[in-house]
Amino acid sequence: MNHQARMRWRCRRGMLELDIVLLRFMDTHYEQLDEHQRKLLEALLTYPDHDLWNMIACNIDVPDEAFRPLLKLLQEN
Fold it and tell me: Which residue, among 1, 76, 16, 4, has the nearest Cα to 41 in the 3D structure?
């Protein structure tokens, strides 16, 4: 399984809203991400569903400013 396929699998979550946003993001933006951005995405995917959703929905503060550009792309989906 290639890296992109593994990342798509990791984007499948227990929350339907996250599944939709993350899989759209993968389809739209993943191939254009550089290595650093891909590592940030991997780090974001380690957060629990509710925390990740709240970061995307701007309901909580972002724990690391480095996530902001990636979250902005996620918010566009």
Answer: 4
